[in-house]
Amino acid sequence: MNGEIAIVVDEGDQESSHVERAIDRAREHEATLHGLYVIDAWRFGEYSAYGWSVLEREKQEEKGERVLERIREKCEQHGVEFEQETTVGKPNETIRDFVRDNDIDLLVFCESGGEGKPHNSPQMIRDLQRELSVEIETV
User: How big is the CA angle at 117 (ends 114 and 121), to the nearest 5 degrees?
Assistant: First the structure.
């Protein structure tokens, strides 16, 4: 493959099996692993009349950075190149644009398990499969 692999994570995912799977796939294929932490703009009031506080936004960004730094450490232990991004937006649009902008070959998600998280809902994953020409793996 020798390409680009992306993993979408949230604050509880740094110890998830999909993180391990993405690192393994990146190592196997000598690919760069991209970690993407999407802060759901709707969930945190970005589009409300009141917006959201600077403090809340900073807290969410810090959570994302902590998760991605833990994944970076794991990648370093396995000799995998890692790039990270924390961003705010609608998860489906943000992920779609990220995949296109970074020429991602494989996108790895955590199995939703019924939690209904916006970044790994079955409907969103089906929509991405329909819209993108990228392999998508759920673990």
Answer: 70
DSSP for 91-109, written as a single string: HHHHHHHHHHHTT-SEEEE
Q: Is 134 within 8 Å of 104 (Cβ atoms)?
A: yes
The domain 4-138 having CATH identifier 3.40.50.620: the answer here is: yes
Q: Distance between CA atoms of 21 and 18, rounded to whole angstroms?
A: 5
d(CA 21, CA 108): 8
Residue 116, judged by CB atoms within 10 A of its CB (0-12, 13-18, 19+), counts as exposed
Alpha-helical segments (H) within 44-104? 54-77, 91-101
**Contact predicate 115/16, CB 8 Å:** no
- Residue type at position 105: D
**Dist CA 126 CA 48 (whole Å):** 28
What band does 25 get if pLDDT is binned at 50, 70 and 90? very high
The pTM (predicted TM-score) of the whole model is 0.85
